Q: What sequence folds into this?
């Protein structure tokens, strides 16, 4: 075998990977099945001829992109070190001094770059092809996040210049805009809210299921390299230019400087521009520019002698705590909020900050009228870090946490094992009502377009909507009203008609969405789905809830994935006569669809089997098909492997079907699948 054969094989593999990525992750095939098969056959022929040159990854990944496999371990070619810190101009001057002495006063230039607040990774490329990607881990060995990294929009599977080997090092992060959008979506789906972009990036990258990573907006910058062979650069400045040529993202703020004064100037500029960059940085990295000089300086312990992190001071501002107000959430949680004299922290004006709960106020001993410090660390969410006790005035009053809901006056209680204090008013409480309406109309519930947060508030404020069922009688009442919606400021016939059309089309709803829309504590989308699958019809569900007994509790606990918290929450919700009545009323106004799958899980031939759906289904939607499969006790996978038991192929099925045929799996048409599951 000669080098050009090896390169050709690498190229074929890279093309196949690219096609797999487009097909599996982007849902946008870049070649037809015949071309894909031709490439695959060409590579397989060469692999037979040169078995010693089959890349180890190729053996694992005969079928599409291998899923993240519980995170295997990858040993870095060159360890990933960390950086020593500098906190002042003096520290930096000392660093520059040490460098110069270490190099016998040779003239040295530096590269200064933002220190991105994200997660570092190392991506190995061989002959220009992406082989694997690992997290930093302990510096020597990291976790294999290849499948996840491949789903990033900026992922480069093939470098333009196929140098034999390079470990590219960089930082994955989430931009402020993407973070805000992700959290908004998470909130709408009642899913975990991330505290800051860094956590969101970490949570998204370290997903065992790469299809989840694929839905998360992650970005990265390359900042350096580990082991390399054939890299045509001798310093960091050339390296960045080379990366840019390869299509790799490099930070536009990086700059070459020549002395301490220039370093300080760049630091001040970065600090000033920090809040406008659109992503979090927590300092500036200063690196000796020339690779040869870096090598001469070497490393001590875990950090190189040729680089240092010049950290930013925590962004802090002093202000006054003018008041503490209480917000009441959908499930009655009373959240104290600090009302601050507006102050700028890191370029953002802050006038409110959450104080989380009663204990937090006590722990920090915050009193109304106190001078306080407000901080914005890596986070974008500001918080009150402490009261300046020396400056406390005699008039500062300890805060007494209310024992009644400030909105409806019902008792507010803190359960023994909870940090949260809750209003016990349920539907009596206006605040809870509005929040419940907002929840019920969002996506995943009734999904009423045109009834977002603002309009829900407006309808509630005007007394037009007090309960969920009021939404579905609104049109009738509006018709006879002297002040119909179309006459309100900012409204017109068009927006009114659109809203009523949206309400009409929301009248038909699946049982799981209906249950989720009720906004019961602890009942998110998944739990609602479990309940809907279990009860199958609205009648069954309501019968069980209306007659909540020990048998009901036991029955519920037997559902895999449902525990005491959910059982308690359901019992409490339906113990409220007003709430029970409201659900009864609501079901007369909407059509709740039975859960499709009949409850025959145990006797189904699909129970315990792994299924893959491919191609387009015409008799039902993918979602319905999946739900049906799950309720029969089957598992649904997204890619075909030897572990797949059945492949259900709709029309236009592509390479998954071919793979299933190659592996000799049982393949069912959509028609056959429907017949077997009737
Ligand atoms: S250079 C030999 N450059 O900071 C060390 N690191 O504490 C090479 N980081 O683990 C690191 N931006 O995760 C370097 N422009 C940048 C960076 C950067 C962020 C992170 C990286 C590293 C940590 C060092």
A:
């Amino acid at each position: 075998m000669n080098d050009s054969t090896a390169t050709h094989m690498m190229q074929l593999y890279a093309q196949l990977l690219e096609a797999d990525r487009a097909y599996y992750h982007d849902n946008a095939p870049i070649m037809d099945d015949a071309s894909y098969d031709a490439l695959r056959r060409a590579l397989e022929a060469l692999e037979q001829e040169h078995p010693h040159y089959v890349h180890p990854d190729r053996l694992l990944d005969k079928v599409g992109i291998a899923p993240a496999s519980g995170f295997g371990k990858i040993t870095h070619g060159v360890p990933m070190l960390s950086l020593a810190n500098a906190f002042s101009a003096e520290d930096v001057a000392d660093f520059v001094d040490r460098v110069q002495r270490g190099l016998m006063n040779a003239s040295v230039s530096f590269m200064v770059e933002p220190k991105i607040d994200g997660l570092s990774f190392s991506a190995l490329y061989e002959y220009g092809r992406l082989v694997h990607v690992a997290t930093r881990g302990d510096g020597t060995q990291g976790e294999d996040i290849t499948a996840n990294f491949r789903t990033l929009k900026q992922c480069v599977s093939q470098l333009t210049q196929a140098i034999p080997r390079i470990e590219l090092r960089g930082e994955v992060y989430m931009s402020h805009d993407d973070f805000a959008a992700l959290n908004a979506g998470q909130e709408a789906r009642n899913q975990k809210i991330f505290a800051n972009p860094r956590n969101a990036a970490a949570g998204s990258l370290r997903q065992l299921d790469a299809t989840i990573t694929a839905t998360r907006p992650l970005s990265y910058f390359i900042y350096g390299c580990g082991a390399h062979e054939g890299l045509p650069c001798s310093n960091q400045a050339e390296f960045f230019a080379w990366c840019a040529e390869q299509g790799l993202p490099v930070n536009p703020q990086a700059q070459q400087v020549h002395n301490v004064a220039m370093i300080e100037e760049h630091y001040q500029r970065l600090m000033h521009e920090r809040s406008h960059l659109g992503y979090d940085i927590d300092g500036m990295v200063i690196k000796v520019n020339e690779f040869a000089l870096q090598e001469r300086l070497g490393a001590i312990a875990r950090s190189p002698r040729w680089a240092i992190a010049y950290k930013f001071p925590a962004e802090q501002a002093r202000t006054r705590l003018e008041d503490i107000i209480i917000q009441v959430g959908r499930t009655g949680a009373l959240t104290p909020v600090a009302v601050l004299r507006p102050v700028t922290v890191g370029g953002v004006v802050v006038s409110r900050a959450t104080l989380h709960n009663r204990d937090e106020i006590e722990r920090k001993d915050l009193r109304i009228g106190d001078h306080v410090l407000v901080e914005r660390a890596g986070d974008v969410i500001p918080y009150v870090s402490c009261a300046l006790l020396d400056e406390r005035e005699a008039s500062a009053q300890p805060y007494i946490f209310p024992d009644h809901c400030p909105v409806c006056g019902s008792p507010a209680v803190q359960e023994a094992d909870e940090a949260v204090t809750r209003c016990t008013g349920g539907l009596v409480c206006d605040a809870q009502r509005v929040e419940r309406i907002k929840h019920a109309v969002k996506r995943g519930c009734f999904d009423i377009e045109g009834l977002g947060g603002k309009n829900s508030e407006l309808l509630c404020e005007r007394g037009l909507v007090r309960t969920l069922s009021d939404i579905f009688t609104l049109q009738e009442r509006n018709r006879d009203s002297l002040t119909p919606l179309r006459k309100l400021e900012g409204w017109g016939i068009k927006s009114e008609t659109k809203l009523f059309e949206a309400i009409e089309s929301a009248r038909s709803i699946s049982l799981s969405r209906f249950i989720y829309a009720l906004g019961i504590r602890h009942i998110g989308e998944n739990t609602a789905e479990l309940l809907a699958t279990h009860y199958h019809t609205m009648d069954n569900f309501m019968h069980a809830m209306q007659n909540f007994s020990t048998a009901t509790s036991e029955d519920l606990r037997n559902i895999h994935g449902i525990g005491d918290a959910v059982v308690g929450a359901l019992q409490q919700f339906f113990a409220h006569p007003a709430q029970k009545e409201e659900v009864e009323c609501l079901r007369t106004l909407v059509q709740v669809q039975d859960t499709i799958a009949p409850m025959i899980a145990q006797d189904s031939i699909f129970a315990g089997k792994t299924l893959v759906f491919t191609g387009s289904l015409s008799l039902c939607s993918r979602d319905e098909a999946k739900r049906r499969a799950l309720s029969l006790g089957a598992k649904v996978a997204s890619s075909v492997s030897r572990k797949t038991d059945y492949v259900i192929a709709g029309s236009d099925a592509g390479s998954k079907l071919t793979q299933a045929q190659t592996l000799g799996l049982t393949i069912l048409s959509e028609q056959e699948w429907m017949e077997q599951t009737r």
